[in-house]
Structure formats: structure tokens, C-alpha cells
Amino acid sequence: MNPVSTVILLLLLLTIVVRNKINATNLNYINKHHSILKRSIDHDFGILPDVYHQNVAPMQDGHPVQVKVSVIILNLKIGSISTQDFDVDIFYHQHWNDYRLQPPTNIEAMTKMKTNDSNVVQYRLTDRWRNRLWIPNVYFRNAVSGSISNILTPTYYFTITNYTEVFMAVRLSLKLTCHMNFYKFPFDTQICYMNLTSTSDDANTMRLSWNIFRIGSHVDESEFTVIRVDHESNCLKQYRFGSYSCLYGSIVFKRNIGKYVIKRLVPSFIIVIITFIGFWIPTNISPARTALPITALLALITQQIQSDLNVSYVYALQIWNIVCIIFVFANLLEFAIALYMIHCDQELKSKKQDPPSTLTMWNDGKDNTGNGQQQQQHRPTLKRRMSQHFQTTTRHAQIDVYARYIFPLLFFLFILTFTLFVSIE
User: What keywords would UniProt list here (predicted)?
Assistant: First the structure.
């Protein structure tokens, strides 16, 4: 063997030895850190005992586990009228005691949290522990959909205080159903519920109770104003196979009516009032008397067609629009009756062929005879003026005179009744 071959063989052997040594070093490093990671996950830092059943609730002396629930509403959005739901973004907290847990053996490797009390030991765990610990199985009964907020990272963690008190925190985005009543729309007040119920653990195993149920002060909803937030504890849901603990939280909304007053109520009110001006226009001016109620009627019908709701029952805003249409239609009907009276008076005059012996509706109501003037002078001033106003020679003029007072009076009585109806809770 020549020297060159010998050198090449030695280099190959040296390369193999160095590579094996590097691989052995890397393997030792990986095994060391893998054992640490495995010990951290499998042995749970010594928190869990050797025998720990995740599916068994930590009951003591046969008493059910007391689970305190907190819900803090961060964002709120009322859905459309057709879907009848609302979206919430909440912080959901659960707090319970698991006496089976024990102090960790490697607390230095854990995230220890600072507390004001030096006697309190508290440390935080990641969301992977939800597959290791017993967690109260609670669900939202009226939820359509939901998810854990993970804009950057999943907002899900645990804290353990004094080694046995478990606190779970998670941020949820939920879509909840809300059965609404629109009989008084847009003056309605809606009550939406958040219903939480135990899934697998019955009331003999676990009991739910409210700790906090509130809405954030910065929450704003343009369509509604939140009047109050209330909650109910100690309720039981009865099924054939047992009783389950449940919680109710209610949110009371009051609709903001500003845009409906400006867009619907005020315009229709003005339209109806304008039609009352027609009673002061002489009946013989037919174009003005006809065009005014017909135009108003078309405008109100257009408003009625452009309804804000699509429900199978009549609600307050529809009642308002319908009554306004009735008043305008009655105005048009009154004009038709007045025209018919004119026609009847003309036929009566043609049969008698006598000139009228009294004044028309545009005079001051006094008789041309001396006896009439003497009688009017003996009447009180107010009574004489009322008599002059209502006593006319033509029937169509009398209809207009009475309509000037009856129509506005009835309309304002309706407004008063409508206001009382929508204001009663």
C-alpha cells in the first residue's frame, strides 16, 4: 500500500470517528432536554399524584364540587331582526377546589405569579393542562356558535393557588340566540339571556354559582342602550336522567328611538297636520282640496310599505302609520261628502227656485232681518261668536266647520293613547 492510500484511509477513519462523536453529543443533548420536557408534561411538575382520574370530579365527603363562574362582557353586538341573536366577546372564568393536587416538585421551572399576600403561593399553567386536569364541563345552552379568541395566541390559561385552588380563564367569542318581542317596536325593551348548564356532571356531583356577571363600562351599542344586567343562581334543569345545575344571566336592552322619531314619526305627524289645513279651504276649490289628502295618502302608504320589520304580527309603528292613513283617508272622505252636499243643495235650490234667505259660510253669520240682529245683540259675546261660526246656511260648510275641530281633537287623543301604550312596561 502506497503512502497516499494510507493517508486517505486515515482521514476517512478520522472523519467517521469525529462524526460519531458529534452525533453522540447531539443525541445526549436531545435526550436530556426531551427527558426534561417529558418530565414536565408527563409528570406535571409533580402537581398530579400518581393516580389521578381526569374524568372524576374532586368531591369531598360526598358533597358536590362548588364551581364559581364569572362572565365579564367585553364587546356586545345585537344581530339583525330576522336572526334574533347577539354576539358577545367575554372573559369566562371558573374557580373550584381540587384537593387531589399536590405541591409541585420543580416549582422553579414553573411560572410563579406575584401576590400581595406572602402566604399565598400562585403559579400559572398553559392551556395544555386542560387535557390533564378535571375541568367543569359547562356549555352555553343558547349558543349558536363560539370560539376561543386567538388573535395572537389562544387566551386560555390556568392558575393554581395554594396548590389546590384552580382558576381557569378563557376569552370566548359567542353568538347567542335571543327571542325578541317587537309588539312595541321601536319603543321596545328586549331581554336577552345567557344560559349556562352542566353537561356531564349532575347536581349531586357539581353545583354552579355566580361569582361575577357584569358588562364592561366601555361597551357601546348604537341601536340599544343597556339598562341593567342581572343574574340568577341555584337553578336546576330537570331531565329524565337527572338534575343538572344551571345559571342564568340576563341583559336588558332599551332601543334608541332617535332615528325612528326623525325618520318616521315626525314626518307622518306633519303630513296628517297638513291635511287638516284642507278644512279651511273652500269646498268649491276642488283641485287644492283633492290634491292635499291624496298626496299625503300616497306618502304614508310608501312609508308603510318601507317597513323596518318583517314579522307576522302588528307592532306599534305599524299602528301609528295605519291610524295616520285612516285620518288622511277620512279627510278625503269628508271632502267627498261635502261635495255631495253641494250637489244636494243645488238640486234643492233648483226645485224651490227661491233665492237663499240666509248668508253663506263666508259671512259673519248675522241675519239680514232686524229681528235677527236684535236677537244676536242680546246674546253673550262668546256664545254669539260660536253661533256665528257654526251656524251656516249650507250643509257642506257646516261639515267643514265641525271637521276643523273634531279631526285634530281625535288625532291628539290618539297620540295620547299611543304614548300611554308604548310607555307601559
Answer: Cell membrane, Ion channel, Ion transport, Membrane, Signal, Transmembrane, Transmembrane helix, Transport
> What's the mean pLDDT in 39-50?
64
Sign of CA dihedral 412, 281, 324, 266: negative
Which of 211, 227, 256 is the C-terminal boundary of a domain?
256
Q: Which contacts qualify for 41-46: CB closer than 8 Å, 24 or more apart?
A: 41/128, 44/129, 44/132, 45/104, 45/105, 45/106, 45/107, 45/109, 45/110, 46/102, 46/103, 46/104, 46/105, 46/106
Whether residues 213 and 91 share a domain: the answer is yes
DSSP H helices, 182-315, are 258-260, 266-276, 286-305
Task: Give the Cα separation of 121 and 213 in Å (integer).
Answer: 27
Same domain flag for 218 and 87: yes
State the pLDDT at residue 151.
72
**In terms of residues, how long is the chain?**
425
Q: What is the pLDDT of residues 362-381, one digit of tens each?
A: 344 444 445 545 554 554 55
The model's pTM: 0.70
Beta strands 65-78 and 206-215 are parallel
